[in-house]
Amino acid sequence: IAGITQAPTSQILAAGRRMTLRCTQDMRHNAMYWYRQDLGLGLRLIHYSNTAGTTGKGEVPDGYSVSRANTDDFPLTLASAVPSQTSVYFCASRPTGTSFDEQFFGPGTRLTVL
Amino acid sequence: KQEVTQIPAALSVPEGENLVLNCSFTDSAIYNLQWFRQDPGKGLTSLLLIQSSQREQTSGRLNASLDKSSGRSTLYIAASQPGDSATYLCAVRSGTYKYIFGTGTRLKVLA
Fold this sequence. Notes:
The structure holds two protein chains of two kinds. Chain A is mainly beta.
């Protein structure tokens, strides 16, 4: 693989169910991010991780949790999905310690919660 | 609180026209600014990254400028083509992890 992969591509989920969105990067970037994109609201940061073993809350963290056990993987878990979590979710990564620190994005996961 | 605005929200131009997309931000204390392209139903593709110490960056037909003091960045697209049709997003990095995105300009280049 090259870049960032996300799985699944899309998912329809019943409210109350638990769901984990997967994100894997092969660029050895230290920083990783989860965003949600909603019409009219743009991209909003859910959680971030500056390096393996550390995570932090973004702008809209409620109802979501993340873990960063290693450099490559950054899964996002919805413990008990609600309809307001219907959105397109993007994972991103960024190298640190360099001036070439642009963000790279995955293809996204379209999630519908009914 | 940093806010990022992109005007206009949508733009249609004939093929071959040179055009400028605007991005404004309220807090000049930024690390960098990044321009992205997003095609319908797809992820974001990075176009240009401008560090806070830089004034402009160029890549092919694209040129991005940054004026921190006035809180503005522009993305200049030369000789536009139908394949340039997409939504263009700017994002300001305001902290170690904090990125604030504009809501984008939806561009349509007419053949």
